[in-house]
Amino acid sequence: FRHDITQLSRKDGVVLSKIIHRQFNMTAYDIINSYRGPWRAFFWQSLSRLYSGDLKAVFNPKTNREDMLIDDIIFRYIEK
Hints:
Blueprint: H1 2-6, H2 10-24, H3 28-36, H4 38-50, H5 65-77
Helix pairs in contact: 3-4
């Protein structure tokens, strides 16, 4: 699993972060904070921000067009 995650592009990471929020109603930052602690969460959020990412990204298809498209793709291909 680690190999797959490290091979993601920046955009893939942004989409993964939003899908995590959609599925678990928790941001990737919240999950890291819960399991690894606040310092690790802060470190990974800081690193993410260096590459224009955001582990605190939320999924909201009602206000964000990209999220609406992600939701549509998930619904069509996964949640039939």
